[in-house]
Design a protein that fits this description.
The complex is a heterodimer. By secondary structure, chain A is of the alpha/beta class. Chain A is about 25% helix and about 30% strand. Chain B is an alpha/beta fold. Chain B is built from eleven helices and ten strands. In chain B, the strands form three sheets. Chain B has a six-stranded mixed β-sheet with strand order 5-4-3-6-7-10, sandwiched between helices. A two-stranded antiparallel ribbon of chain B has the order 1-2. Chain B has a two-stranded antiparallel sheet with strand order 8-9. In chain B, helix 5 packs antiparallel against helix 6 (about 145-160). Chain B is elongated, with a radius of gyration of 21 Å. The chains are: A alpha/beta, B alpha/beta. At the A-B interface, strand 2, helix 2 and helix 3 of A face strand 8, strand 9 and helix 10 of B.
Chain lengths: ~725, ~300
C-alpha cells in the first residue's frame, strides 16, 4: 500500500480528540427527584455495563471516523504488481509492435500500425524521466534499449509493416529477456497488437509463461489497436497445376476469394507477363461471395512459351486490408522431358502401357506431351548416353551387367531419376550383386502373394510429392478396384530407403532411395504386363479398365523422377528462395530485382544455387545474368502466407490462457491505458472506498448517538 | 364527555380547592355515570317500603304488600352499619411527588379518600382516618354522623407529606390498634422494602379486617418518561443515581411491573383488595375497583 500524501496520516492523531472530549466533556446530567429510585438501583449494575458498552462503541466509532478520514486524505492505493511507491520512479519499458502485414488493416483512415504508433508516441512522454525504452518490432535483430526517448520516438515513427515478420510471442520473449537484464526495478511491457487469433499461438504459451515467472513484477499491457469486427476480402494461396511445366502443357491457376463479413460481387483478374516483361491481363472472372464464405476461381492458361513466366491474380477494387488482394506466381516452361524406357523385347510392345500413360499418342502428335519416351531393349541400355535423359525406367528388368548398374548409379548420382518396375523376370542372384544393390531398396526376398484380391494400393498417407494429386480426393480414390496379387519384398531394407506407397496391409509397393543428387523409385510389382497374361498368372490389375488412379500415379512418379517437383518457384515471405542455375551457363554474379524496385547482386553457391533471403516483400522477383540474348532470366514469387491475413480476433479466455497466471491488462484507447498504467504505477485508489466508510461510520455514530442521547421531550415538568 | 365525567379527571378536580366539594364532585360524577345504583344489594337488612315510582326497578316490587294493599311498594334496604371504615394515609415525603401530572400522589390519595369518606358517610357507615409516616401520626375515630365528613376532610386538607416512612411498622401498629372488624383502606405508594409490608398486611388481614390497598404511584413512576443522562435523587434517603434514562426505561418498567405483580399476587392470596393506581388515572377507575371488590364481598 502506498500513500499519495503520507504526511496527512499524521491527522490520525486527531483520533485523540474524541477520547479527550469523552473524558472532559461528559454530558452534565439533569438532577431529578425520583422516589422510585429503588427500581433503578435494582437494575443499576447491568444497565451500567450496557452504558459503558455504548460509550465505548460511540467512542470507537468517532475514533474510527477520524482515523479513516486521515487515511482517506492520505490517498492510499494498492498495487497490482506491488512495485515501487513513487509514481515517478524510472521504468524499463519495452514497446513491442506487431508489424506483421495484418497491421496494415485500415480503419477510420488509419492503419492499425499507425494507430499503434500514435498511442506509443503519446505514451512515450508519459514515461517517468530517465526511463529506459526499447522498441521491438518484427524485423530481425535482438531487442535493445534506445539511447534516449528521442531515438525511441524516431524508431517508432519509422516502423513499417513487414510481410510476416517474427511471430509476436518471439518479440515478446525478446522484450522480457531484455527487461530481465535491466537494472530498473520497475519493468513494463507495452504490447501493441491487433489481437488477432493467429498472432497468439498457444504453442508459445508455456515457454512464455515460464519466462514471465522468471521475471516477476513485469507489468504487461496489451494495447489492443485491432478492429472488433474486421471486414476483408482476400485471395487464398494460389494452386498451380505445376511450377515447372513441359512446353505446351496447360497451366491452371486456381485460388479462392475469401470473405470476412463482406457480401460482395467482385471481379478477379489474372495478369501474366509478356515477352517484354510487361504485365498483361489474360483473364477475368466476376465472383459473388457471401459473408464468411469463399468461392473458388480457376484460370486456365495455355500457350506458354519456354522460359520463366510470372503473373498475379488480383481483386479489383479496394478493401481495408489491401495486402492480401493480390497473389503472385511464377512458372517455368521447359521442353518435354526425355525418358529412356528399357524393357524386355519386343521393347515397344512391353513398354506400351507406360509410354502411353506418360505420352499418349494424341498428345505426341499435337506436341502437348510432357515426356518424350525412348524405348530400348535391355541389351541396348548400356550403349545409350544416359546424360541426355531426365529419367530412365526399367520395366520388369532381368539380370543386367554390373556395368549397366554402374551407369545407372552414376546417372542417378548426377541428378537423374531411375524408375525400377520389378516383375517376374527379376533375377535374385544378379539383383543381389553389389552394383545392383546400390540402386535397389535391398536384397530381394520371397514374393508376397494375395491371390484373393484383398490387397491394393493405399494413398491414405499422401504427404509424399508424388501423391499430391490425390490429396484433394482423399478417401475417394477407388484403389480397391485395382488389386495387387503379387509383389517382391526386400529384406533387409538399405539405409535411407523409405516407403512412398504401401498396400493396405502395409507392405511397401513403391519405395524411394535417394542417391547423390538423384533418386531411385522402385515399384515391387510390374507395370508392363500384357493384356494376354491369364488372370491367375497376373501380378496386378493396375492397368484395368478406367484405371485413372494408376495413370495419375505413373505420371506423378515420372514428374518426380525428372525433378519437376524440385524446382520451387513460389515462396512465402521470409522464406529463403533457392534457384538452381544451369551449370553450363554459369555466371559469377546474378542480379536479383525485388518487387520494390531494388536490385541486389547475388553469387551462386557451390551447388549452383542462388539463395535469396531478402524476401520480406510480396511480389515477383527476377534473377538475371548475361544479358537479354545469351543470358539467364529466372524468377520466383513471394506471397504472404494465408495466416497473415486471417483477422479473427482472439477470445478473452484464450488470451488469459496464453498469459496463464501472469497478470496483464488490456487497454484500447489512451484513457484506458492511462487508467490501467496508473493502476499499476499508482495502484488502485482507496480514497472513494475510505470516504464511503467515513460516511458510513459517521452515519452510524449519528444514529447511535441519537438513540443513546435522545433529548427529552420539551413538554413536561422537571 | 358529560360534565359529571369531567369531574372524574384529576386535572379538573385540581381546580376545585375545597376538598368537600372535590369529594362531592367525584362521587356525584361517578354515581351519575353508573346505570344502576351502586348500593343495590349492598346492604342486606330491610329498612322500609316506599311507593313505586316509574323508573324504579320492577324487581324490587314487594308482591306481598301488593296483594295486601293493591298498591305498588318497593322494598328499600338499609345499609349495613357495622362495617367500620378506616382511611389510612401514608404521609411519606415520596407521596408528595409528581413529575408532570396535575396532582401529586398525595393529592390524588386525598381526593380519593375524601370521595370514599363521602360515600361511606352517606351510607351511614362509620369512617375514621389514620395517618402515618414512621409511626401513626394522627387518627380520627370512626363515626357515621355527617359531621364526621367535615372532620375528616378538614384533617385531610391539612395533611402534608413530609417525612420518612415506615409503612410496615405503621401497619402493624394499626393492626394492633383496631379492635373491631373494620374495612382498612390504605393509601400508599409502598416505596419501601415489600417483604415487611406484605407481612404487615397479612397480619392486618389475619386480624379479621377487610383491607383495600390503594397503591398509588406517579404516572412518571409507572411509565418512566425520561430520556438522556439523568441523575435521580430519592427524596427521603437522598440517594442519587446517574443513569441513561432512555436505555433504562425497559428495565425500569419491567421492574415496576414485577413489583406491582408481587403485591397483586400476595394480596390476592391473602384476600386483600389490591388497587394499582397512577396519578393520570381517572378517579372513577379507582372507585369502581373499590366498589366492585366490595360488591363481590357482600
Amino acid at each position: 500500500m502506498e500513500f499519495l500524501n503520507p504526511f496527512l496520516l499524521a491527522g490520525a492523531g486527531l483520533a485523540a480528540v474524541p477520547v479527550v472530549l469523552h473524558l472532559i466533556m461528559r454530558q452534565q446530567p439533569r438532577l431529578l427527584e425520583f422516589p422510585a429510585l429503588r427500581f433503578l438501583q435494582m437494575r443499576q449494575l447491568s444497565n451500567r455495563r450496557r452504558m459503558k458498552l455504548r460509550h465505548l462503541l460511540l467512542l470507537a466509532l468517532r475514533v474510527a471516523a477520524v482515523c479513516l478520514l486521515a487515511l482517506a486524505l492520505a490517498r492510499p492505493s494498492i498495487h497490482g504488481s506491488g512495485l515501487l511507491g513513487d509514481q515517478q520512479a524510472p521504468t524499463a519499458a519495452a514497446m513491442v509492435f506487431d508489424t506483421s502485414a495484418r497491421m496494415a488493416y485500415r480503419h477510420e483512415n488509419r492503419t492499425r500500425l499507425e494507430a499503434a504508433q500514435d498511442i506509443a508516441l503519446w505514451l512515450l512522454p508519459q514515461l517517468p524521466p530517465e526511463s529506459q525504452v526499447a522498441v521491438v518490432d518484427a524485423t530481425p535483430g535482438d531487442a535493445s534499449f534506445q539511447i534516449d526517448l528521442g531515438t525511441a520516438r524516431q524508431r517508432i515513427e519509422r516502423l513499417a509493416t513487414v510481410g510476416l515478420g517474427r511471430p509476436l510471442p518471439e518479440l515478446f520473449e525478446g522484450a522480457i529477456r531484455l527487461l530481465k537484464d535491466s537494472q530498473q526495478k520497475r519493468k513494463e511491457v507495452f504490447l501493441f497488437t491487433d489481437l488477432t487469433d493467429r498472432a497468439w499461438p498457444s504453442t508459445a504459451s508455456d515457454r512464455l509463461q515460464r519466462l514471465l515467472a522468471e521475471v516477476p513484477g513485469v507489468a504487461v499491457y496489451v494495447i489492443d489497436v485491432g478492429v472488433l469486427e474486421p471486414r476483408n476480402l482476400s485471395l487464398a494461396e494460389i494452386q498451380l497445376s505445376g511450377q515447372v511445366l513441359a512446353r505446351n502443357s496447360p497451366l491452371r491457376v486456381a485460388t479462392e476469394l475469401v470473405s470476412l463479413r463482406m457480401e460482395e460481387q467482385r471481379t478477379v483478374e489474372l495478369y501474366l507477363s509478356d515477352s517484354q516483361g510487361q504485365m498483361q491481363k489474360r483473364s477475368e472472372e466476376s465472383v459473388a461471395v457471401t459473408a464468411g464464405g469463399s468461392k473458388a476461381i480457376d484460370f486456365p492458361v495455355a500457350g506458354l512459351d519456354e522460359g520463366t513466366h510470372q503473373g498475379y491474380v488480383r481483386i479489383v477494387g479496394t478493401d481495408a486490408l489491401p495486402i492480401d488482394d493480390a497473389r503472385y506466381f511464377t512458372v517455368e516452361v521447359k521442353p518435354p522431358w526425355r525418358v529412356l524406357v528399357a524393357a524386355l523385347p519386343p521393347a515397344d510392345y512391353h513398354a506400351a502401357n507406360l509410354t502411353e500413360a506418360l505420352a499418349p499418342a494424341d498428345f505426341r502428335r499435337s506436341g502437348h506431351a510432357r515426356f518424350e519416351c525412348d524405348v530400348v531393349p535391355f541389351d541396348d541400355l548400356g550403349r545409350r548416353p544416359l546424360a541426355e535423359y531426365a529419367a530412365v525406367c526399367l520395366l520388369d528388368p532381368r539380370a543386367l551387367g554390373d556395368n549397366v548398374w554402374k551407369q545407372l548409379s552414376d546417372f542417378a548420382r548426377g541428378g537423374g531419376g531411375v524408375g525400377i518396375f520389378l516383375g517376374p523376370s527379376a533375377d535374385l542372384a544378379s539383383f543381389g550383386a553389389a552394383a545392383a544393390q546400390e540402386l535397389l531398396p535391398g536384397p530381394l526376398a520371397p514374393q508376397a502373394r494375395y491371390p484373393d484380391g484383398t490387397a491394393y494400393i493405399s494413398t491414405r498417407d499422401d504427404q509424399h510429392p508424388i501423391l499430391a494429386k490425390f490429396r484433394s480426393r482423399r478417401g475417394a480414390v477407388p484403389w480397391e478396384d485395382f488389386p495387387v496379387y503379387r509383389l517382391w519384398q526386400f529384406d533387409p531394407l538399405a539405409d535411407g530407403v523409405g516407403t512412398v506407397v504401401p498396400l493396405t496391409n502395409g507392405r511397401p509397393v513403391i519405395l524411394e532411395r535417394p542417391i547423390g543428387k538423384g533418386r531411385v523409385l522402385t515399384m515391387a510389382t510390374p507395370v508392363s504386363e500384357l493384356a494376354e497374361v491369364p488372370d491367375n498368372d497376373r501380378w496386378n490389375q493396375l492397368w484395368g479398365v478406367g484405371s485413372w488412379p494408376f495413370f495419375t500415379l505413373a505420371n506423378e512418379m515420372m514428374m518426380y523422377l525428372v525433378g519437376s517437383t524440385d524446382g520451387q518457384l513460389n515462396y512465402a515471405t521470409e522464406q529463403a528462395a533457392v534457384l538452381y542455375v544451369d551449370a553450363e551457363k554459369h555466371f559469377p554474379t546474378y542480379l536479383v530485382s525485388t518487387p520494390s524496385g531494388e536490385s541486389l547482386r547475388q553469387a551462386p553457391n557451390q551447388q549452383n544455387a542462388i539463395v535469396v533471403t531478402a524476401t520480406s516483400n510480396v511480389g515477383n522477383y527476377r534473377v538475371r545474368a548475361g544479358g537479354e540474348q545469351e543470358g539467364v532470366n529466372l524468377g520466383f514469387s513471394v506471397n504472404l502466407p494465408i495466416e497473415a491475413s486471417r483477422l479473427d480476433r482472439i477470445g478473452e479466455d484464450r488470451l488469459k490462457a496464453f498469459f496463464g497466471e501472469h497478470a496483464f491488462r488490456v487497454a484500447r484507447d489512451k484513457q484506458q491505458i492511462d487508467r490501467e498504467v496508473s493502476l499499476d504505477r499508482v495502484g488502485r485508489e482507496l480514497y472513494p472506498l475510505l470516504i464511503g466508510l467515513v460516511a458510513f461510520v459517521l452515519g452510524l455514530e449519528h444514529v447511535l448517538a441519537n438513540r443513546f442521547y435522545r433529548e427529552p421531550p420539551a413538554a413536561g415538568k422537571e | 364527555m358529560s360534565i359529571a365525567e369531567k369531574y372524574l379527571k384529576p386535572e379538573v378536580v385540581r381546580e376545585i380547592s375545597r376538598l368537600d366539594l372535590r369529594a362531592q364532585f367525584i362521587v356525584k360524577g361517578f354515581l351519575h355515570g353508573l346505570h344502576a345504583s351502586p348500593f343495590h344489594g349492598f346492604s342486606v337488612e330491610f329498612s322500609e317500603h316506599r311507593k313505586y315510582t316509574p323508573g324504579d326497578n320492577p324487581q324490587d316490587i314487594d308482591w306481598l304488600v301488593y296483594a295486601k294493599t293493591d298498591k305498588y311498594y318497593i322494598k328499600k334496604f338499609e345499609a349495613e352499619t357495622n362495617i367500620t371504615g378506616y382511611l389510612v394515609m401514608d404521609l411519606s415525603r415520596s407521596m408528595g411527588y409528581t413529575y408532570r401530572q396535575e396532582l401529586t400522589k398525595f393529592d390524588y390519595a386525598i381526593c380519593l379518600a375524601a370521595a370514599l369518606c363521602y360515600l361511606m358517610v352517606h351510607q351511614q357507615d362509620p369512617v375514621g382516618l389514620i395517618t402515618f409516616d414512621e409511626k401513626i401520626r394522627s387518627s380520627l375515630p370512626p363515626r357515621s354522623k355527617r359531621a364526621q365528613l367535615g372532620n375528616i376532610l378538614s384533617l385531610l386538607s391539612k395533611l402534608r407529606p413530609t417525612g420518612k416512612t415506615e409503612i410496615a411498622k405503621s401497619i402493624v401498629q394499626i393492626a394492633a390498634m383496631l379492635r373491631h372488624h373494620s374495612l382498612v383502606m390504605l393509601f400508599s405508594d409502598l416505596l419501601s422494602d415489600p417483604d415487611p409490608i406484605i407481612q404487615a398486611l397479612h397480619r392486618l388481614r389475619h386480624g379479621g379486617h377487610d383491607v383495600i390497598l390503594f397503591h398509588i404511584l406517579d404516572e412518571a413512576e409507572v411509565h418512566f418518561p425520561f430520556d438522556g443522562i439523568v441523575e435521580f435523587e430519592e427524596p427521603e434517603s437522598h440517594d442519587r443515581l446517574q443513569v441513561d434514562a432512555g436505555g433504562f426505561k425497559a428495565d425500569y418498567v419491567s421492574e415496576v411491573n414485577r413489583f406491582r405483580d408481587r403485591y397483586r399476587r400476595e394480596c390476592f392470596q391473602s384476600g386483600i383488595d389490591y388497587v394499582p393506581l397512577d396519578t393520570s388515572m381517572r378517579f372513577d377507575r379507582a372507585l369502581t375497583e373499590y366498589l366492585i371488590s366490595r360488591q363481590g364481598r357482600f
